[in-house]
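cron nightly-structures :: item 1 of 1
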Amino acid sequence: MTINSAFQQLRVVVVGQGYVGLPLAVRAAEVGHQVVGLDIDGQRVKRLVLGESYVEDIPDSRLAPPLASGSYRPSLDASDCADFDIAIVTVPTPLRDGVPDLSYVEDAARTLGRRLRRGATIVLESTTYPGTTEELFGPLLENVSGLTVGRDFHLGYSPERIDPGNPNWTLENTPKVVSGIDVASAEAVSRFYSALVDTVVPVTTCKEAELTKLLENTFRHVNIALANELAIFAHELGIDIWTAIDAAATKPFGFMRFTPGPGVGGHCLPIDPSYLSWRVQRTLGRSFRFVELANDVNNHMPDYVVRRLIDGLNERKKSLKGSRILLLGLAYKANTGDARETPAARIAELLAGMGADVRASDPHVDDAHPRATDLEQVRHVEATPENLAAADAVVLLADHDAFDYPLITAHAPYILDCRRRLVGAHVDSL
């Protein structure tokens, strides 16, 4: 079987044009491949065709050249995937009632399987439980195509490591873990990514690569939960948790800095560790206690934020019911418009359910960016002196650099700061 070299122009298909797929598709086009970016969202594809990016990591100026040259073509039409040399799957893998939903992965396998030809390579990047590539994705490709994995086509797994809004670590300079179902597949996958990124990290099996992603995110999830629970107890004990964290972070070994916050968001932390927990429970019949404890702590941080806000208002002789609350930052993290699984949605829901007048301001989350559906019901306003002063309480949830923090401190009458960016007698830190 002839294996294509990553140094020759390849026909590439990237299924899914979100925070992972779009940067990958643009990068593949930049190095010289002919790329089709396939997505099922008509509005998303329409905007891409017009040269409008909804992902901060890919500004319009970077999207324009490959569009103009024709090396990148967004599409809704699966027939545009015909005769591909390599296909990368970057579709969502949500949880449904605590159970992994791999329907998007399965749909992608059917779409690609109908157009799969001998000698092609397919790589799954979507985060999932160990065993998905070999036990579900590969067999489905075989069933649809009539071809045999390993003999007729290559198959591998490479976990995505995109950190939206991170200016320092990008697709290009973040080491890329790669794997294949056999040696030839691993070599084909490694060759392709070697032309896109600075460093490729091969691992022996797809299961190891799948576990690598879950290990990375479970590590963060558990340590953030530790910081969150410490913040709750430290507040009740009258101790400044932030000072303790700053002091601990001066130790040059044996400690890694994690900070508390209003909850976790994005795809990685609220969802990915639960994939591993589900797999352990289903396969081994055991509970993954660290993940379950971390889920419990992090999932209840929005409730804790609301309790702290109620306490702060009570100290100022105000009731939450009828109070105007201004939420600053709807994204799940700073300097991005990514509002997937954002804790801001739960906080807004709780506050509105208790009778508060909830407003929100976020310079990144607007109609130009994907966001949680629940946030569409929140009244969006600018963080002007007038709106800040009119609020009974301002809650900083995502500490975007675009916020004018001196302005916020000067005009907000009371602030609950969940990110430790503000100081003042009228500021409470989480």
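cron nightly-structures :: done
The two ends are 60 Å apart (CA to CA).
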